[in-house]
Amino acid sequence: MVNNWEEEKKKIKSLALAIRGSTREEFLADLANLEDYIYRKIYIENINEKNFQDGVRQLINSYCKENDSNTPDFILSEYLICCLDNFNSIVNKRSCWFGKGLNEENNLKGSKHER
User: Fold this and answer.
1) How far apart, in whole angstroms, are the C-alpha atoms of residue 5 and residue 75?
2) Where are the domains of the chain?
3) For 51, how many CA atoms within 13 A lie in the half-sphere containing its CB?
4) Which residues contact 96 (CB under 8 A, 6 or more apart)?
5) What is the pLDDT of residues 73-94, one digit of tens each?
6) DSSP string spanning 86-102?
7) What is the C-alpha to C-alpha distance for residues 96 and 101, in angstroms, rounded to an integer?
8) What is the distance between the alpha carbons of residues 56 and 110, in angstroms, rounded to a whole number?
9) pTM for the whole thing?
């Protein structure tokens, strides 16, 4: 999942501008770099997020914590991950408010799961 879309758009735009003034060989090399960058950002980050969610789900399941509420483990894992995302967002916003800049990249990001 891409965390800071504006920064990602800037990187992609700069690569696209570099490609425009290139020879055919440079264009193909830049295109390969762009494809690799997009692959890493979209595919690998999504796999890491999925692995984390699966790990939380397995942990819930291994301790039978889904039984108390009769809620499937995958729903509980999604809920807990959303809680963590929201907590991180609020802590960063609080730090920004107090001028501490705990994590500058996350200050304006908000939660990944905001609706």
Assistant:
1) 27
2) 5-106
3) 6
4) 102, 107, 108
5) 999 999 999 999 899 888 888 8
6) HHHHHHHHHHHHTT--T
7) 5
8) 22
9) 0.51
